[in-house]
Amino acid sequence: MLGSVIMIAADAQKYFTLRMQRGLITDGMHRYIRHPNYLGEMMIYGGFALMVGHWLPWVWLAIIWSTLFATNMAMKEASMSRYPQWAAYRKHSWWLLPGVF
To answer: What separation, in Å, do the N-terminal and C-terminal C-alpha atoms of the chain show?
Structure first.
């Protein structure tokens, strides 16, 4: 449930911020983590795996998270690096999970 809230809030923030101005989003949830949408989505899928109660979904999620999500986040970061404030933003925000990485 928390994953859904994070993902919806991040999507709404991105939508309304980019309607007003183009550029790098550095406030709201993005102030702390650079990929709140992916964090919410990962939490949703992790919740589904917990409900199944078997180890196999975790293997599948590890493969998806380490390939698809990591690749997409790296491409997004490469795209965001064109903004002048990127270096400062990157220094003061976490990649995915505050306090961890």
So the answer is: 22
